[in-house]
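Lab notebook, bench 4. Still working through the backlog of constructs that have no structural model yet. Next entry is a single chain of 85 residues. Request: give me the structure tokens for it.
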Amino acid sequence: MRIKKNIAISESGFIFNPAVGDSYSTNPIGTEIIKMLKESKSVAEINSYILNTYQVEASSFEKDLYDFVKMLEKYKLTETDGQEA
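Model written out:
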């Protein structure tokens, strides 16, 4: 899974989907997650990076990451194998 190529992401956490005109905002960690997904990093790679970079509890972050990824899918910001998720 990855973020669609046409999704714009600013340094401040502003996300824009030009296909439908929707915009969203996220916190700095959410922005990092989205950028890593855009680079086709796996959820496992993202999980490992965040746990090694920030002082967060592994069990709660894993659930938060899962919920965040599901939200990105719900808002149709992701694709898998070249297909929309």
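Notes after review: The first helix runs from residue 28 to 38. DSSP finds three helices and six strands in the chain. Flag for follow-up if needed.
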